[in-house]
């Protein structure tokens, strides 16, 4: 009979991703590190097989600040991962609990998503000459 592993696949994966996400934030600017403490992070794969680094901002203001530091985020993703082709900075919908408030249209200048809204930024592969 085979012995059962001390770690199951799920706990090992969770440990790996937790360590990866902590390391991801290490060399970013202090401002971006502070913003990321408010955001769930993860890596998702779409049905076409494209891996995307996902950041879910709690508000549009946080998402806009993250977009200002997008070059640093992309450099860090490139340094730590291979095969991640996109960065998605998303805004979570407001958690007000009222279904009726989602049915009304906000003024044109105010963005208030009823569903998760994302800005997807492609991550270009590093050229061989850049990595040498």
Describe this structure in words.
The protein is an alpha+beta fold and 132 residues long. The protein is built from six helices and four strands, in the order ααββααβαβα. The protein has a four-stranded mixed β-sheet. A hairpin with a 5-residue loop joins strand 1 (41-45) and strand 2. The protein is globular and about 35 Å long. It starts with 8 loop residues before the first helix and ends with a helix. The relative contact order is 0.14. The model is unreliable at 98-109 (pLDDT under 50).
The total of helices stands at 6
Radius of gyration: 18 Å
SS-based class: alpha+beta
Low-pLDDT stretches are 98-109
Topology:
Elements: H1 9-25, H2 30-36, E1 41-45, E2 51-57, H3 60-68, H4 70-80, E3 84-91, H5 99-103, E4 117-122, H6 128-131
Would you kindly provide a brief summary of this structure?
The chain has 132 residues and is of the alpha+beta class. It has 6 helices and 4 strands.
Supply the key terms.
single chain; about 130 residues; 4-stranded mixed beta sheet; about 20% strand
